[in-house]
Amino acid sequence: MGKSRKKQATGASFSEKQKTALEAISYGDPELCRNLAGADLRQLFNVDLQVATEVYERLAEHKNVQVRATLARNLDLKAFPKAAESLAEFYDDATLLALIDNPTLSHRVSLSITQSQNFTARYTLASSERLKDFPEAAAELVDDDLGIRCALAKNPALAELPATAMLLTKFKEAAIRQALIGNPALEHLPDVALYLEQNITDDGTWEALEKNPGFQSLREKRTLEAMKELGMNPETLG
Prior knowledge:
Blueprint: H1 16-26, H2 30-37, H3 41-45, H4 49-59, H5 65-74, H6 81-88, H7 93-101, H8 107-114, H9 119-127, H10 135-142, H11 146-154, H12 162-168, H13 174-181, H14 190-199, H15 203-211, H16 213-229
């Protein structure tokens, strides 16, 4: 399970009985706590924001992985940032993958996942189409290991992450180059395509680049623009 984090101090406005009750939630019955984790507490129980916040933060510390995974999947991560960050500090697949799937994934939580010891979570984020919304996390993943870089290089979301794509071209590993060359996003990355085109030295890799539909489209467009610039009407060619 693994993680280290000091408990948040319970708000001063809570009575001693309420503080004890909140502490009990941290170690509560897994089935009941899982149901709590999947609920909108303010709507279901008509509790105020402070109570809901404290309960969610306690559930985020629960020892049961299914409780945490349920919370990670259902919580509004932007509305309850402390609980979200606490969940991101765990190492298990269920919690971290649920966070990545959560529609309310925040920039801060995505950055926390890039620093996780869990390879599967980092790889999943690097492969996710949602990465286009988190350029800072994408940039962090560029500095990860070869497997993560290859996942990034294959990700079609690179179409909206040109800076990350260009960073990946600087690595000399053939696997990264091959992943970039096969990425359909290449059509939307003219600078990356041009760099690859000018820096490929072996025939096999060049042939792979030529087979990329995105590269074909980009090269055709570039050639037509060059012809027009030089006063040649492409339609004359038929």
